[in-house]
Design brief:
By secondary structure, this protein is α+β, with helices and mostly antiparallel strands. It is about 45% helix and about 15% strand. It has 14 helices and ten strands.
Length: about 325
């Protein structure tokens, strides 16, 4: 694996972000340039009943969770055939509103791509990078890895992973596909990846290395911080309008640190806590009763911050009141 650095650099060169807008127009232009046939993988969890929506539009589809229970199948990934411009525009419009689709160009045809994508539903992941409670994870024969679900149909997952992969991994992900396009606002907007014929794919299941997990976590953390900054810009424009990007980042990092000390674990709670910290010029943490309120025995700190936000919006002076 001596050429890892070069290989990874080459992969990154084949991934092209775009910030052009409007998103739908840019997406459809990308699709127009792709080699036919084109397919999409879509996440059903974003919709009440995605297969029914697709059926009404006359778009062929089938589940990538073949054999799953009805609810898992409904909310899971769907393989969608895009046979005309109307179908492409419809799916592009959906994913521009709520990123829910990845577009694949596969000259080898539907069955080749479908079977390939099903082979990606699970990947080998370092056990050292998994949460302590991994009883539900199916152990692999390799003692240091476990088989876990790989959400390759989610543009946020694929968009964050692709630039981190080495040549064999990258080629293993694309398989028979010549090109993949997705819209993921947190990781570069519209992203395009192409496959080079000379890159041999990894044999067997896709395996993720421990150092790649560390880099992925750093990428995801940066995306989380940017979303928090956007949330604060939206909710507190009178305060953030006079702040530089560096000043706002410092506020986010400080509220994040205090939030972790208080036991906050979700992005929503950290954003709400960031709101309270910035809106009070960091004074909320010193208000009598706030710390014990958030860390109340038997209560979830994330839920307590949610309640704290309601109290603050209601104008309560004593935020720690039960």
């Amino acid at each position: 694996m001596g050429d890892i650095g070069t290989a990874n650099h080459d992969v990154a060169d084949n991934i092209e972000p775009s910030s052009l807008s409007p998103i739908v127009k840019d997406l459809t232009a990308r699709l127009d340039a792709m080699q036919r046939p084109i397919f999409a993988t879509m996440e059903g969890a974003h919709f009440d009943n995605l297969p029914s929506d697709l059926t009404r539009k006359g778009i062929r589809h089938r589940s990538l969770f073949r054999g799953a229970n009805p609810q898992s199948e409904l909310s899971g990934p769907w393989f969608v055939e895009l046979t005309n411009e109307d179908a492409e525009t419809y799916v592009a419009s959906l994913t521009a509103e709520k990123p829910c689709a990845v577009f694949w160009s596969c000259p080898d045809g539907e069955d080749k791509l479908f079977n390939h994508l099903r082979s990606l539903n699970e990947v080998l992941y370092p056990k050292s990078a998994l949460p302590e409670n991994t009883a539900s994870k199916r152990a692999d024969s390799a003692k240091d890895y476990a088989r876990v679900l790989f959400r390759h149909w989610d543009p946020a997952v694929l968009g964050s992973f692709l630039p981190l992969l080495y040549r064999p991994q990258y080629s293993r992900v694309l398989g028979p596909a010549r090109e993949v396009v997705m819209y993921t606002p947190d990781y570069g907007g519209i992203i395009r990846g192409t496959r080079r014929d000379e890159w041999a794919p990894m044999a067997g299941p896709l395996k993720i290395e421990e150092e790649q997990v560390a880099r992925l976590e750093a990428v995801m953390l940066e995306a989380t911080r940017k979303r928090t900054e956007a949330y604060l810009h939206k909710c507190l424009p009178s305060i953030t309008k006079d702040m530089t990007d560096q000043q706002l980042r410092e506020e986010v990092l400080h509220s994040e640190k205090v939030g972790e000390e208080l036991g906050l674990t979700t992005e929503r709670a950290q954003q709400q806590w960031g709101f309270l910290m910035l809106n009070t010029r960091r004074r909320v943490v010193d208000v009598n009763g706030v710390r014990p309120f958030i860390s109340s025995q038997g209560k979830n700190p994330d839920s307590q911050v949610d309640e704290l936000m309601l109290l603050a919006m209601a104008g309560e002076k004593y935020l720690g009141r039960p």
